[in-house]
Amino acid sequence: MALQSKIRPVELVGQTVFLIDQTLIPYEYKKIEIDNYKDIAAAIKDMLVRGAPAIGISGAHGVALAAKEFQNLEKKEFFANLKNACDYLISQRPTAVNLEWAVKKVYNYALSNEDKDVSEIVGKIFEFAKKLELEDIEINIKIGDNGAAIVPKGATILTHCNAGALATCGYGTALGVVRSAFEKDKTVQVFADETRPRQQGARLTTWELVEDGIPVTLITDGMSGYFMKKGMIDLVVVGADRIAANGDAANKIGTYNLALVAKAHNVPFYIAAPLSTIDTSIKTGDEIVIEERSHEEVTHINGKTVCAKGVKVINPGFDVTPNELIAGIITEKGILRPDYNESIKKVFEE
Ligand code: MRU
């Protein structure tokens, strides 16, 4: 039985969405209430909610809120407006495929009920979005349990960014593996990269692991090679935002460096992600759109400038780790191994 985390960053209750405001953690724990889709879109863009599965399900709930807003329209108008709202939600963050996946899934579900009254369709959309939310937690527990099998006794697991309960509807993907492994073996521990520039590792990963009583040591992003050389890291497990058909995986900026350092030290590097993160419509990682984020994330820390005024900045939010650096992709259907073109194709045929 997997260790249950109580952290629920995205919850639909009736026709209201509750989000943990992740911009406030670790200083403050606050849930915000949202009842319209434009505020969901803003919460995704401003990263009150973040992490591929969490923005996916928030998007799904956003479609339900949009449907409620348009429920008095005649059916043709209803669907036209709903489609525009879906496009708007998807456009908020480009790299994580889960957002597009979940929004389109809800929209297609609505279309499959086109023969019903609009009010009935709206009710069904809310039920469907809630089902996706609960399924996400179940999927993460499966990922965790599948991944725990490859965690050696007493292992130190290095992770980057936050692929935890906070990045999903609960339990987490990479941190789901940690939770399931820790449930079996209380000597497992985590090293968390701080994850510049937004500090998801320092702010979010340490917070949620401490909440659940799992030992965690915070390191800065440049320290991984130092600890690997000393033999202090047994494996790396990170999440993903979009995985191409050949296994190339986009994740938070800095992941690629980590994978290279892991390769140099013979430390296995794993991705933990649901099948909904795999985008079989793209052949390789070269096709993944990388989000470019604001320069202030790099030039400022806690509102204070940390560099020369007017300096040039580039701030890609993600990078792509090539498939040859990845030992396995831990999914709800088991661990996919190279050749990923083959294993990914096969898992979608099952
Ligand atoms: O910019 P973020 O915080 O949304 O980036 C999150 C990540 O890169 C995560 O590792 C990824 O979404 C996987 S979450 C299970």
Notable features of this structure?
Rossmann fold; Four Helix Bundle (Hemerythrin (Met), subunit A); binds 5-S-methyl-1-O-phosphono-5-thio-D-ribulose; seven-stranded mixed sheet; alpha/beta; four-stranded mixed sheet; 11 helices; 350 residues
What is the structure about, briefly put?
The chain is an alpha/beta fold and 350 residues long. 41% of the residues lie in helices and 17% in strands. Residues 50-53, 96, 161, 163, 167-168, 173, 200, 238-241, 251-252, 317 line the site of 5-S-methyl-1-O-phosphono-5-thio-D-ribulose.
Summarize the helix and strand pattern as letters: EEEHHHHHEHEHEHEEEHEEHEEEEEH
Helix content: 40-55%
The dominant shape is globular
Could you describe the largest sheet, including whether it forms a barrel? Answer: 7 strands, mixed
CATH superfamily of the largest domain: Translation initiation factor eif-2b, domain 2
> Looking at CATH, which topology of the largest domain would you report?
Rossmann fold
Task: Please report the distance between the alpha carbons of the first and last residues.
Answer: 26 Å
CATH class of the largest domain, please?
Alpha Beta
Q: Low-confidence runs (pLDDT<50, min 5 residues)?
A: none
What's the number of extended β-strand segments?
A: 16
Distinct compounds present = 5-S-methyl-1-O-phosphono-5-thio-D-ribulose
Radius of gyration using CA atoms only: 20 Å
**Second CATH tier, the architecture of the largest domain:** 3-Layer(aba) Sandwich
Mean pLDDT: 97
Give the count of structural domains.
Answer: 2
User: With helices defined by DSSP (H or I, 4 residues minimum), what is the helix count?
Assistant: 11
Helix/strand class:
alpha/beta
